[in-house]
C-alpha cells in the first residue's frame, strides 16, 4: 500500500500526528491556494443520505469572502476538519522521542477528501484567492481523519455540530472591533452612566432575575437606528459623540431608569411593569430620536423633556396593545411594533410621522 501511494502524485504537508478515539489523525498547515483542489465535492449530484455534510448555504459565503479580502493582515480562520477516503503516508522526522509524531503527511492527489466541518470556509477561500491572489500563500490548519466509510463521516459531522453554540449577539458586539455598529454600542456603553451600570454585555435576552435593564445588542440596534445606519455603514467620531449626547439626555428624562440605577426599584419589577424597560422601548427611542434630531436640530434636548409625559406603564393597555404588546399583554418584538411604539414617542415629542410610519399607523387604526 505504501509503495503504490509513493508511486502516485501526492500532496505533501508538514504535519503533527495524534490519536482521537483510538484512531490516528493529522493536523497540517495547508496553503490556501490548494484548498479548492483538496476538497472537491459536487453536492448537486449527491443526495443528502450519501453526503457527509449539509448543503452549502451560498448566502453565507460572500460575507466570509469579503472578510478575508478586506482584512488580509488581520483575519482569523479556524481549522477545517476533513476525512480522507483512501491511504495516507506519514513519515516521522525521527524514529523515537517526541519528534516521532512530527513529520510529512502524503495524500494521493486522486484521493477524495470530504469536509466534515468548514465547507463554507472552503468555498469562501476559493473565491477570496481569486480576488486577492496573495491570500493563496497563506495557510489554514486542516485536521485530517482517515475515512472509515460514509457512516463514520456523517457521524463526525453530527458530533462536530451537535455541541456548537453560536455566541450571543451581545458577546459578538462586545468582541467585534471591525464592525462600526459594535464600536458605536461599546462607545455609548462607556460614556452613558446609566447604560454602563444597567447593560448586560454577554446575553442577548435577560432572565427575570437579571440585575440589568438592557443588552448590548439592543443598545447597538437602537443606536444604529438613532443615527440612521444600516448594515456596515461607517460611523464617524462626531456621530458617536452625538449618540452619547442623545442617550444621556434620554436617561436624564427617565426617572425610572435612575430609580433602577440607585436600586430604589428592582430591574425585574421595572421590566414587569413598564414598556421602557424592554428592548422594544430602547429601539423605539432610537427610531424616534432619529427623526427628532433631523426635525429639531437646535432644540431636540428641550423636546426630550416630554418623555416624562408618556405613560410607560404596561397596565396602560389602551395605548400599548397592538404596539409594544400583543393582545395577550406580551411584549412584541416585530418591526411594525417598534415603529408603532416609536410613533407614541414621536407624538409626545412633537415629531411628525414619515410616509412609512403613517402607513403602519393607519393599518393599526383601520
From TrEMBL:
Residue stretches spanning the membrane: none
A UniProt-annotated Pfam family: DndB
Domain of life (superkingdom): Bacteria
InterPro entries linked: DGQHR-contain_dom (IPR017601), DNA_S_mod_DndB (IPR017642)
CDD domains: dndB
NCBIfam families, alphabetized: DGQHR, DNA_S_dndB
Protein name as catalogued: DNA sulfur modification protein DndB
Amino acid at each position: 500500500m505504501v509503495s503504490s501511494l509513493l508511486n502516485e502524485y501526492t500532496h505533501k504537508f508538514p504535519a503533527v500526528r495524534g490519536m482521537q478515539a483510538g484512531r490516528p489523525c493529522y493536523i497540517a498547515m495547508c496553503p490556501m491556494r490548494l484548498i479548492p483542489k483538496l476538497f472537491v465535492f459536487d453536492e448537486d449530484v449527491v443526495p443528502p443520505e450519501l453526503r457527509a455534510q449539509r448543503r452549502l448555504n451560498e448566502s453565507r459565503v460572500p460575507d466570509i469572502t469579503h472578510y478575508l479580502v478586506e482584512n488580509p493582515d488581520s483575519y482569523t480562520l479556524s481549522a477545517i476538519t476533513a476525512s480522507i477516503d483512501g491511504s495516507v503516508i506519514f513519515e516521522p522526522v525521527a524514529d523515537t522521542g517526541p519528534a516521532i509524531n512530527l513529520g510529512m503527511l502524503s495524500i494521493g492527489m486522486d484521493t477524495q477528501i470530504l469536509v466534515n466541518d468548514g465547507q463554507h470556509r472552503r468555498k469562501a477561500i476559493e473565491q477570496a484567492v481569486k480576488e486577492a491572489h496573495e491570500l493563496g500563500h497563506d495557510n489554514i490548519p486542516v485536521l485530517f481523519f482517515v475515512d472509515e466509510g460514509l457512516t463514520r463521516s456523517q457521524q463526525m459531522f453530527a458530533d462536530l455540530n451537535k455541541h456548537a453554540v453560536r455566541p450571543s449577539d451581545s458577546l459578538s458586539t462586545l468582541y467585534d472591533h471591525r464592525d462600526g455598529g459594535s464600536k458605536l454600542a461599546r462607545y455609548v456603553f462607556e460614556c452613558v452612566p446609566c447604560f454602563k451600570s444597567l447593560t448586560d454585555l454577554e446575553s442577548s435576552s435577560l432572565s427575570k432575575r437579571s440585575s440589568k435593564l438592557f443588552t448590548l445588542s439592543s443598545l447597538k440596534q437602537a443606536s444604529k437606528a438613532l443615527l440612521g445606519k444600516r448594515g456596515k455603514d461607517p460611523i464617524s467620531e462626531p456621530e458617536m459623540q452625538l449618540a452619547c449626547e442623545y442617550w444621556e439626555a434620554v436617561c436624564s428624562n427617565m426617572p425610572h431608569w435612575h430609580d433602577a440605577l440607585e436600586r430604589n426599584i428592582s430591574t425585574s419589577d421595572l421590566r414587569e411593569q413598564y414598556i421602557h424597560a424592554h428592548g422594544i422601548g430602547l429601539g423605539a427611542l432610537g427610531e424616534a430620536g432619529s427623526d427628532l434630531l433631523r426635525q429639531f436640530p437646535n432644540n431636540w434636548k428641550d423636546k426630550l423633556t416630554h418623555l416624562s409625559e408618556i405613560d410607560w406603564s404596561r397596565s396602560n393597555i389602551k395605548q400599548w396593545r397592538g404596539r409594544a404588546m400583543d393582545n395577550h399583554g406580551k411584549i412584541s418584538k416585530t418591526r411594525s411594533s417598534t415603529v408603532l411604539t416609536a410613533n407614541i414617542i414621536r407624538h409626545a415629542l412633537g415629531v411628525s410621522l414619515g410616509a412609512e410610519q403613517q402607513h403602519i399607523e393607519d393599518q393599526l387604526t383601520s
